[in-house]
Structure formats: structure tokens, C-alpha cells
Amino acid sequence: MIDNLWARAGNIRMIKGFDDIQKASKDNIEQAMKSVEAMSKGIQALAVETADYQKKSYETGAAAIEKIVAAKSVEKAVEIQNEYLKATYEGYISELSKIGSMMTDFAKDAYRPFESVFGKIPK
């Protein structure tokens, strides 16, 4: 009879252990899904930003070519080209900075669901 009680107590502890494992697994899956969702949103935002930059870059390049072709002198064409190159370089550096910032933000968002497990992100 006492052995039977010990067996029941052991079974109850074992079942509680399985329930705890199942709850932890469910929590981990939910955290992973939130992280994947944040990554997906970040990648979509990066894709939109990249497409917008490419479109703007193409339009700027096409406008510069039209101006160069319409230039009345070689000096004016070179001046237009230099202005275009300077503006393109500055725009490119600005875009790289913006994309870098976006990537940092989306990495933080993807990590956020795991903060409770691994700790806060150092600033």
C-alpha cells in the first residue's frame, strides 16, 4: 500500500514535469514565431527601401544623362557629370547609413522576444 502511494506521488511529479516541459516548449515556439515575424517585417522594409533607392537612382541617372547630352559644351557636360557624381556619392552614403540603421533596428526587434531568456540588449 505504501509502495503504491509512493508510485502515485512519483507519477504525479513526472506528469507535472512533462507539463512544465510542454509549457516551456510552447513558450519557446511563441518567442521564435515573434522573432521570425519581426525579421520578416524588417526584411520587407529593407526590400521596399532598396527598391525605392534603386528607382530614385535610376531616375537621377537618366536625368543626368539627358542633361549631359543636351549640354552645349564639353566643359558644361563635365560640370554636370561632376555634380551628378557628387550627389550620387552623397546619396549612396546616406542610403548605406539608413539601411545600416534599419538593419540594427530589425535585429533588435528580432531579439526582443528572447530578452527574458538571454537578458536585455546592451546599449
What does this structure look like?
The protein has 123 residues and is mostly helical. Helices cover 90% and strands 0% of the residues. It contains 3 helices and no strands. It has helices at residues 2-70, 74-111, 115-118. Helix 1 (2-70) packs antiparallel against helix 2 (74-111). The longest helix has 69 residues, at 2-70.
Brief characterization of the structure:
The chain is built from three helices and no strands. The chain has 123 residues and is mainly α.
Beta content comes to under 5%
Rg computed from alpha carbons, rounded to a whole number of angstroms: 29 Å
**What sort of overall outline do the alpha carbons produce when their principal axes are compared?**
rod-shaped
Name the average pLDDT: 83
Distance between the termini: 61 Å
Number of helices, where a helix is a run of at least 4 consecutive DSSP H or I residues: 3
Main beta-sheet annotation = none
Label the structural class.
mainly alpha
Helix content: over 70%
What's the count of strands?
Answer: 0
How many structural domains in the coordinates?
A: 1
Uncertain runs are none
Give, in order, the helices and strands. Answer: HHH
